[in-house]
Specification:
By secondary structure, this protein is of the alpha+beta class. It is 22% helix and 28% strand. The termini are far apart.
């Protein structure tokens, strides 16, 4: 399943697409004219992901195809793991 990361570039926002690798598969630029993806539409999934990114105030969020948060690159947790925080805290080996 592809993951998307967003950053603010010089001429607009850039969305990088990853798929279980450390190198991006594609990088799309979104500016006032729209997205640079092959769909060439103002309402493509990349613009929805950008809108979700602008609404959040957290840096490093990773999104899926449906513009849902699936993790954060800075704290290495996923949304699925947040619901089981009780289990994570009780399973610490040290301190």
């Amino acid at each position: 399943m592809p993951q998307y990361m967003i950053r603010k570039g010089i001429y607009g926002h850039e969305i990088a697409k990853f798929d279980d690798s450390n190198a991006s598969l594609d990088v799309y630029t979104i500016n006032s004219r729209g997205c640079s993806c092959p769909a060439r539409s103002r309402s493509c999934k990349h613009t929805r992901i950008l809108t979700a990114w602008k609404k959040s105030n957290v840096e490093g969020i990773v999104f899926d195809d449906d513009a849902q948060e699936i993790g954060n690159i800075f704290n290495f947790s996923t949304i699925a793991n947040k619901s089981s925080s009780k289990n994570r805290n009780s399973s610490k080996m040290y301190g």
